[in-house]
Specification:
By secondary structure, this protein is α+β, with helices and mostly antiparallel strands. The chain is built from 8 helices and 14 strands. The longest helix has about 35 residues. The chain is globular.
Length: about 350
């Protein structure tokens, strides 16, 4: 099974400068690709002649381009931007992976255009530019990595290599076999670098677990102070406390409000640290809750897990200001995503259903 293992990177000063440079180039290359995409698309619309229209949106009369699918693809982007300074500053396969992300965004846009004409979504927009001077993730497929003595060395462009004064290498975690690695991404986030190891450990999803009874089930409903309340068909029950999560979110909100008082768009390294700590706490809570639920199903020999969940219910919640603040930040959606990853490993059948049913 494929999975992603995220590890906080420990780079020295020279390595950090190298990765900052690569992430800057990746960000700029994405913006170049978006610019090329928009120029090509709007030039094609202009030549088309009848692509500009007037339309109503609610009670307002507007004018603009009709929604048409974008003809730009990854191969066209790769061909058009090969001579870009940002492309040349990165390893070839890493630059190609960066352009593929833009190609995937265009594919998503084209799918939304079709859904728009079916009346399922609002009018979609082409991919947006990233912040100028920002950082973007740099991805290396296995073919761009070489392994030796517990380290992976990524490919480096010819233009960048003469400027290096140190070897660039990524330490492989002890619990990951080098043969498992399929892709490595160096990702900047909140003032630090993280390494995403995409691995295939060779395990296969369990279709039927002989130790589980598929005529029995655990059912869970989510809330605020009681994050999850569960009842089984065997008459068992449990509650996962949500008060600690609520307290963490309240502490985070107070600190952010303190630092940003009177400065609406202010952000600094202290706020990076606060946001990073809060993200780690939420991720830890999600992982522990998911593992607890799976272990409970295994220990009870129950093969079905049912969770009540309505998509978008937090955005539309109207329980009063205080209750909304306590309810909305609880990461139940991320917990369900984690359970979808864990349950197939043990043969547990996960069903996510609307709470009204």
């Amino acid at each position: 099974m494929y999975r992603t293992v995220t590890i906080r990177a420990r780079f020295d000063h020279e390595e950090k400068l190298f990765w900052l440079d690569q992430c800057h180039h990746a960000n700029s290359l994405i913006n170049c690709a978006v610019y090329h995409t928009k120029q090509s698309h709007f030039s094609w619309l202009t030549e088309k002649g009848d692509a500009f229209t007037i339309y109503w949106k609610e009670d307002e009369l507007r004018h603009g381009w009709k929604a048409y699918g974008c003809l730009t693809t990854y191969p066209k982007l790769d061909q058009a931007l090969k001579q870009s300074e940002h492309y040349k500053a990165m390893a070839a396969q890493s630059a190609q992976q960066t352009l593929k992300t833009v190609g995937e965004s265009i594919d998503s846009y084209n799918a939304l255009v079709k859904a728009y004409y079916r009346g399922e979504v609002d009018k979609p927009k082409l991919p947006r530019y990233r912040t100028k001077g920002g950082l973007a993730a740099v991805t290396f497929p296995k073919q761009a990595l070489s392994y030796k003595d517990g380290y992976f060395k990524p490919s480096i462009s010819r233009e960048t290599k003469p400027e290096l004064i140190t070897d660039i290498k990524l330490e492989l975690p002890e619990f990951i076999d080098s043969d498992w690695v399929k892709e490595v991404t160096v990702r900047p986030c909140l003032g630090e670098f993280w390494i995403n190891w995409v691995i295939d450990d060779g395990k296969q999803p369990v279709e039927v677990n002989p130790n589980l009874n598929y005529t029995q089930a655990w059912g869970f409903d989510h809330g605020g102070a009681n994050w999850l309340t569960g009842v089984s068909t065997k008459g068992q029950s449990l509650i996962i406390n949500g008060k600690l999560l609520r307290s963490m979110n309240q502490g985070y909100s107070r600190l952010v409000a303190k630092y940003k008082h009177g400065r609406q768009n202010y952000w600094d390294s202290n706020l990076d640290r606060i946001q990073r700590k809060r993200n780690n706490q939420m991720r830890d809570a999600v992982n522990k809750a998911a593992r607890f639920i799976v272990n409970r199903c295994l220990s009870d020999g129950i093969g079905n897990l049912v969770i009540g969940w309505n998509e978008g219910m937090k955005n539309g919640s109207s329980m009063g200001k205080r209750n909304n603040q306590n309810f909305a930040p609880i990461p139940t959606g991320r917990l369900i995503t984690r359970l979808k990853q864990l349950c197939p490993e043990y043969g547990i059948v996960l069903s996510v259903t609307e709470e009204a049913k």
